[in-house]
Every structure is written in structure tokens, then in C-alpha cells.
């Protein structure tokens, strides 16, 4: 699915960068691998976001990382001097909560959500008044014991009101949580995922991503979850609805072809911009069978500031 | 891959059962789902094994469950009054240890094995004098903390002598263990699996199997491990070498088409017998695209005792 026109390289090309900026009103910006890697913010990022906003552009941070809620993301952005409001943040946990409360709308009391994930998911579910179990509850951070083997097998440990399994990145994943999730799915719960990223870029290396944490459930059930993060168009629809975007004047910026760039192309946005500070490199989209190719690319997001000259 | 001749049903058919027994000298017998489900031994199993041995048949227990060593398996068999010697037990952990020490033969000191799994794997590695880390070491049963994020990312927590990642069923799987395993594979360690069973039948239900515990590593690296359990023919070669089998006079007995029955067919054994006390049912091999079909089947292994009449 590499596109016909070659990807245009903007770094160091001031006229092309200015032309690029003039095409768009809104930039949807991935965070991990674009703004930062873990706690390390890339050079010039705060100034770049400031510059885009000074040019009248709307900057929306669209992230698949479900471990933080929008409020927590805002705190991180602020601590790194990156200008934003909470309304400019759209995460996969929020996307999942919106989907459950406004689209899935299971009738109570069978609308409880079994969560595999961290506090970000819990906060967003709470903000939509969705009942849930699991998640960061210490009762689920346990080893298997005879009661667990028996109670999971005979169902006595299961909550009969669970109608949804929502799985995302869980730094406390264990055998017990996977075994419980499988039982709920086997009983017919709807299978949702915040996102399917296989890895999480952090500290200049890679760690297990949400897609690798929840894949045991896919392997056991043979079922694929509905993913609510990039590149799922369920997320794009939610973003468009919230921000009233003109898709033709919107550009997706990200480091991953299989999430960010695919998300922008499938969403028929006016453009996509790849940055080379994260997972994918130029050779990844130039090779045969590449999952997606960006319309534009830069070495780093801060290269866009050249247009300020 | 369903075979041309229909599977022959032996339950209640005494002449056919006698004819079946006369075809074979050795029975390779799966344990979980055939002899027992968890701690529950199926009716008549001790007497059936006793009967087969009284008929001059060799009974070899071939199991993909890597959580127990051969000695531990023997204890379990004895506690259930099932006659066996330690030499009649062949597990995937033992198969993996044999493969590492006698076939892979990495030069020391770069031959250390990073284990994801339980004590069974450790015991079998020790019996072959293979150095290992991970496994049941309490130091690996930990949450991520700043030192872990940093030390895994920068490599300071990694052992430079690890040349193999051996993954199997681990009831204490966690984020830390997966993250470590990924780093070793990324550095070029050989990727081995005791087995790839997606589920573990227990207490009349299903729990995550080895294949579902290690699949995050497959998802992150895009690499497939070499599996040393059924249906891998590496295991069949090891079994044949150890027991000096005449394959044409050997029958594989099991409950799973994708491991047991496939193992016997691909190993060109004289026959395969499916039992219906475990994972698969008759409709599973009769449907279009079935992974394998047994030559014979019974409702339960104890049905073979009818031939004693």
C-alpha cells in the first residue's frame, strides 16, 4: 500500500516546509517517539509546538498509550513545557470509554468492564460513569493459588455482570489476569483493546506494548478485539466528532507506519508526516509490501521550526 | 490434512479393540486430558495402564507440560496409582534440555539460558549441566521500577552470556520477564519453546498454555521459536533415539489434534488414537480444514480395557 508519489523530505527545505504548513489547520500529533522517548523530551519540541500554535494551527495530541488519563497527560506535557489544554489530548483509553458509553451502550447491570490495564483506563471509564473491575485493583496482582485455580475454573470467582473485556498496556500483567480475561471472553464478553501496538518505545529502546500484553487472549480465543486506538477508524471518527475537523486540512504526525501513518491515510486526511525519532525509518516505507508510506517526512518534529525563519 | 480412511471408533467394539492392540508394541501417551484433568484422574486409568503393561506393551508418557520435571511427573503418576518408571516419561522440558546440550551445543560461556518457565525446566537443564538464569528466581518476580526500566533499556541488567531464550509455561509471568526476554532475543539469542499449546486443560476448564505465555515475544520480535514439544519432530526424533522405537509398531494416544495426533501422523507412526476426555471432539477432525484426524478414537482411554474380557 505504498502510495504512488514519493514521500517528500522537508528537513532543511524551508520553502517546502512553509508550503507544507500552509496546507493544514490542524495537526494530530502522536506523543511517544515524536515528542519524547519516555522521560526524555527531544530537543526543540516545546518551541516547535509553540511555533505551530503561533501560526494559528490547532495541535491535538493523539496517543495510543492508555496508561495515562488525559489529565495525567496534560501534567506530563506541562512538566515538559509543551503547551496544551486537556481538550487537546485524545488517548486510546478515552476513545475506548467513549465507545463503551456512547456506542456499545450495554444495558445495566450487564455493562461492567473487566480491565487489563493501568490507571489511565480506569480514570477514563470513571469519567464516563462506566462500572469496572480488575485494572489496578491489588486483589488482581496475585499469584495463582488453589482457590484461584478452582474459582476461575468453576466460575465462582467471576463477576456475572461483566459484559466487556477492555485490554490495554498493563505493567502488572500476570497469569491470573489473563486467565480471568479468557473466561469472560469465553462467556461472551465483548472484546475491546485500547490499541494493538506491539512495542512501547522508551529510554531509546523498546518494551512490550499493549498489543503484546493482550495477545495471549487472542491466541487462546481465536478472537480479534476491536481496537479503539490508532489506526482504528473508530478513533478517527471520535476525534473528528469532538474537534469538528476538516479532514482535508488536517495532518497526522507520527513515528509509526502501522499506527500513525496508516491512521491518517485510512482516515483520508489531507496529509501525513513521519518523524524519524521513533520506531520506523525511511527504508521501512520504501520496501516492498510496506504497510503505509507518509506523504511527508522530517528527521525530527523540530525541523518544522525552520519555517519560522 | 484429514486422512482418507474414516477414524475407527473402538469404544464398545471388543474385536476391533483387540485388533487395535495387536498392531502395536509401544504406546506414546499424552497426560493432560488423557490420564487426568489437573488433579482429577479419570475413572479406570491406573487399571488401563496396568492392563496395557500386562499385555507386554511399553507405555511412555509424552507430555508438553514443562512445569514438572520427569521426577515430579513420576511422583504424580505414583500418587495416582499409575504404574511407570522415570525412564518411561518424556516431557517437553527434558526434550528442550537434550536439544540444547546435545544438538545446539553453544560454546561456553555464551551458552547460558534465560528461562521463562517453572521448576520443571530448571531441573531438566540442571540434569544436563546447562547454566541458566530467570525461571523461578524470586529476583525476576518483581514489578517494573525506575532501575528496571533503565537497566533493561541500557542493557546493564542483562547477562552478556545469555545465548538462548527458552520459554515455556510460567505461572508467574510478568512484564519484567517479557521485557528481559525480548532484549535477549533482540541481541541474537536462539529462541526455543518447550511447546506452543495455546491452552492448558485443568479442572474441566482451560487456562493459558505455554504458547499463550510466550506469544508476546513472538509478537514483539516477529520471530517464531523452535518448539521442542509435540508436534515438533525434534521431540519425536529424541523419543525414537531414547526408546529405540519401531515407528510402525508405535501408536500415539492423545486428546489434541494439533499436538498429539499431528505429532503421530507427521512422525509416521503406525497409528494414532484420539480420546474424547480432553480438548478435541469428533466434529473437530471431521470438519473441513481439520489440522489432523486420528486413525482410531475412543470415548475414554479406559475403554481399551474392554479387550481384557
TrEMBL record, chains A, B:
Would I find Magnesium among this entry's keywords? Answer: yes
State how the cofactor is bound: Divalent metal ions. Mg(2+) is the most effective.
Q: Which EC number applies?
A: 3.1.3.41
What InterPro entries does the database record attribute to this sequence? HAD-like_sf (IPR036412), HAD-SF_hydro_IIA (IPR006357), HAD_sf (IPR023214), PGP_euk (IPR006349)
Cofactors demanded by this protein: Mg(2+)
- List residues binding Mg(2+): 30, 32, 255
Q: Any idea what this protein is called?
A: 4-nitrophenylphosphatase
Q: Which residues bind substrate?
A: 230
Q: Which UniProt keywords apply?
A: Hydrolase, Magnesium, Metal-binding
Q: Which Pfam families match?
A: Hydrolase_6 (PF13344), Hydrolase_like (PF13242)
Provide the active-site residues from the annotation: 30 (nucleophile), 32 (proton donor)
What SUPFAM superfamilies does this protein map onto?
Answer: HAD-like
Reaction(s) this enzyme catalyzes, per UniProt: 4-nitrophenyl phosphate + H2O = 4-nitrophenol + phosphate + H(+)
Amino acid at each position: 500500500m505504498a502510495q504512488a508519489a514519493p514521500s517528500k523530505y522537508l528537513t532543511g527545505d524551508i520553502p517546502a516546509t512553509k508550503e507544507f504548513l500552509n496546507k493544514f489547520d490542524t495537526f494530530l500529533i502522536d506523543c511517544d517517539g515524536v515528542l519524547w522517548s519516555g522521560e526524555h523530551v527531544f530537543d526543540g519540541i516545546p518551541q516547535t509546538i509553540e511555533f505551530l500554535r503561533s501560526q494559528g494551527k490547532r495541535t491535538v495530541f493523539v496517543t495510543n498509550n492508555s496508561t495515562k488519563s488525559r489529565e495525567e497527560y496534560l501534567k506530563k506535557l506541562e512538566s515538559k513545557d509543551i503547551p496544551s489544554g486537556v481538550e487537546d489530548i485524545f488517548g486510546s483509553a478515552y476513545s475506548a470509554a467513549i465507545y463503551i458509553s456512547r456506542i456499545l451502550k450495554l444495558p445495566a447491570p450487564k455493562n461492567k468492564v473487566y480491565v487489563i490495564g493501568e490507571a489511565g483506563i480506569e480514570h477514563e471509564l470513571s469519567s464516563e460513569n462506566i462500572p469496572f473491575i480488575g485494572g489496578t485493583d491489588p486483589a488482581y496482582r496475585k499469584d495463582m493459588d488453589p482457590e484461584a485455580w478452582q474459582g476461575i475454573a468453576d466460575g465462582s470467582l467471576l463477576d456475572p455482570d461483566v459484559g466487556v473485556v477492555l485490554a490495554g498496556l498493563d505493567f502488572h500483567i500476570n497469569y491470573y489476569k489473563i486467565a480471568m480475561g479468557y473466561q469472560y471472553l469465553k462467556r461472551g464478553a465483548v472484546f475491546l483493546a485500547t490499541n494493538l501496538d506491539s512495542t512501547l518505545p522508551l529510554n531509546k529502546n523498546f518494551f512490550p506494548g499493549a498489543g503484546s500484553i493482550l495477545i495471549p487472549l487472542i491466541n487462546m480465543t481465536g478472537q480479534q478485539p476491536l481496537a479503539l486506538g490508532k489506526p482504528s477508524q473508530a478513533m478517527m471518527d471520535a476525534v473528528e466528532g469532538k474537534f469538528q475537523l476538516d479532514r482535508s486540512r488536517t495532518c497526522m504526525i507520527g513515528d509509526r507506519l502501522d499506527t500513525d501513518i496508516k491512521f491518517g491515510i485510512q482516515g483520508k486526511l489531507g496529509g501525513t508526516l513521519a518523524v524519524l525519532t521513533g520506531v520506523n525509518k525511511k527504508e521501512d516505507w520504501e520496501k516492498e509490501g510496506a504497510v503505509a508510506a507518509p506523504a511527508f517526512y522530517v528527521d525530527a518534529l523540530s525541523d518544522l521550526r525552520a519555517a519560522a525563519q
